[in-house]
Amino acid sequence: MHSSIRSIDFCPAAGADAKPAETFLVAKPQRPHPMRRRAILSAYPEIARLIGHDPLTAVITLAVVAGQTAFAAVFGMLGFTYWWAALLAAYGIGAFANHAMFVVIHDATHNCIFDSNRLNKWVAILADLPNAVPTAMGFRCYHMKHHSHLGDYDYDADLPSRWEARFFGQSSPGKAAWFFFFPVLQLFRLNRLKGTVPMRGRWTFINAGCIIAYDLAILSLFGPAALFYLFMSFWFSVGGLHPLAARWVQEHFTFDPEQETNGYYGPLNRIALNIGYHNEHHDFPDIPWRRLPEVKRLAPDYYDGLRTHPSWFGLFVQFIFDPRFSLFSRVDRSSETARADVKACAARSK
Predict the structure, then answer these.
(1) Please, are residues 273 and 110 in contact by the beta-carbon 8 Å criterion?
(2) Which of 56, 104, 243, 346 matches a 20 to 30 Å C-alpha distance to 62?
(3) Into how many domains does the chain fold?
(4) 348 secondary structure, DSSP code
(5) What CA–CA distance (Å, rounded) separates 81 from 2?
(6) Three-state SS string across 290-340, please?
(7) Which residues neighbour 280 within 8 Å (Cβ) at sequence distance 6 or greater?
(8) Mean pLDDT over all residues of the chain?
(9) Strand partners, 308
(10) What b/e sequence results for 298-326 when a residue is b if at least 16 CB atoms lie within 10 Å of its CB, and e otherwise?
(11) Could you write out the DSSP letters of every residue in 167-200?
(12) In terms of residue numbers, what domain contains 270?
């Protein structure tokens, strides 16, 4: 294990008297992934050949969107008498389909599908159709900051807001409620961010227009039960007390602050388009999802020693019921608070 690449120095955020569950963990300003990327490319230059595009993702996207539209049509024809069947299908099938489409939106955001920015945006909008609400261009607007400012409270929308962490706390009911309302809670984080372009560009309106047109077509052709199935598939795909929501915990929540990004290599990667290969993705965000396992295979000494989660379902249960886990179980390297606290930690350690 290349500990010089992995290791970061940490200490509690709000001084020596702060309770660990009531403050984020604080890191030095430098992020670990650019350092590891340079080291891996130096040791294994053949990995650079994996960087590029994968148009097959667009074909997969078309097939999944067609499948979700077909399921919606079936439940639309059954009507709301069978709302419970639509709900169960959304939880057991639709959530996985929509979650895969979020990974497509993710890859399109990194321009890993086509060389053209325009084509990547269109694939992202196509993948967004079964969500019933527009998400693709908003995600594209804010996600790149997550990579360039990982764990920086002022810029990273993936980091929970402090009020959010305090409100939902570390109680099991609070964390379960956080999982359920996660699709909405992300929106409340945007106002705190600095230096991010607002979601009001031309592509944002194109995205919204396409989703509205698709929703109206679903309503007019198949009825409201069809749209209900699609919306619940969206809800369960990112939250709604579905084990898939554990992905958000797996990626950057941590007990051991020396490793702030964690992986999942279980079988669900086959239908979640390898999103569990999260260290590999952060090291190489320009490598398409289908090639991420090859990164791990070519550079095992950089990945085999990293901590992983064996099960999303197990992590889902653990996060809710383990009192050690809270929404503050994250790293914060924001410019104003983190750097000052790192300096204070260094002074106390002398």
Answers:
(1) no
(2) 243
(3) 1
(4) H
(5) 59
(6) HHHHHHHHHCHHHHCCCCECCCHHHHHHHHHHCCCCCCCCCEECCCCCHHH
(7) 263, 287, 292, 293, 295, 296, 303
(8) 89
(9) 263
(10) bbeebbeebebbebbeebbeebbeeeebb
(11) HHTTSHHHHHHHHHTHHHHGGGGGGG-SS---S-
(12) 3-349
Give me the DSSP letters along 26-82: EE-SS-HHHHHHHHHHHH-GGGGGG-S--THHHHHHHHHHHHHHHHHHHHHHH-GGG
From the CB of residue 39, how many other CB atoms can be counted at a distance below 10 Å?
16
Q: What is the largest CA-CA distance in the chain?
A: 71
Cross-strand bridge partners of residue 12:
25
Q: Which helix (H) or strand (E) holds 222?
A: helix 202-222
Task: Indicate the pairing of strand 331-332 with strand 10-12.
Answer: unpaired
Q: How confident is the model at residue 258 (pLDDT cuts 50, 70, 90)?
A: confident
Rounded Cα distance between 77 and 274, Å, is 34
The DSSP secondary structure of 87-138, one letter per residue, reads HHHIIIIIHHHHHHHHHHHHHHHTT-S-S-HHHHHHHHHHHHGGGSS--HHH
SS3 state at 240: coil
Residue pLDDT, tens place only, 164-199: 999 997 899 999 999 999 999 999 998 899 876 666
Instruction: Give 149's DSSP letter.
Output: T
pLDDT of 12 over the 60 cut: no
Amino acid present at 341: D
For the beta sheet containing 25-27, the strands, ordered from the edge strand earlier in sequence to the opposite edge, are: 10-12, 25-27, 331-332
Rounded to 5°, the CA angle 190-195-199 comes to: 50
pLDDT for 153 = 93
Could you identify the residue written with the tokens 């078309």? 62
User: What number of CA atoms fall less than 13 Å from residue 162's CA on the CB side?
Assistant: 14
Among the listed residues 135, 98, 140, the one whose alpha carbon sits nearest the alpha carbon of residue 117: 140
